[in-house]
Backbone:
């Protein structure tokens, strides 16, 4: 295996595999993530429970939050009005 091929294999996104056995629809999967995130931003108003996020950290490898951040959503726009009525 050439050095360039090893480097390219490291750059693959792990859940989709890589090489000859990689997922053939990886680009579709990544596009769906963008569309889903855009729909969540467009169709909901987001807020934090209590009005303010507690950003205090605990000690750890990834600096986890001491208290979890709880997000509340409220429907702003129905993305499929024809289906619901």
Residues:
């Amino acid at each position: 295996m050439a050095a360039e091929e090893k480097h390219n294999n490291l750059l693959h996104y792990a859940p989709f595999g890589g090489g000859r056995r990689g997922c053939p629809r990886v680009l579709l999967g990544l596009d769906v993530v963008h569309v889903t995130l855009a729909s969540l931003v467009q169709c909901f108003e987001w807020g934090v429970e209590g009005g303010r996020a507690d950003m205090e950290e605990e000690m750890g490898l990834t600096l986890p939050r001491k208290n979890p951040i709880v997000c509340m959503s409220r429907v702003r726009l129905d993305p499929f009005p024809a289906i619901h009525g």
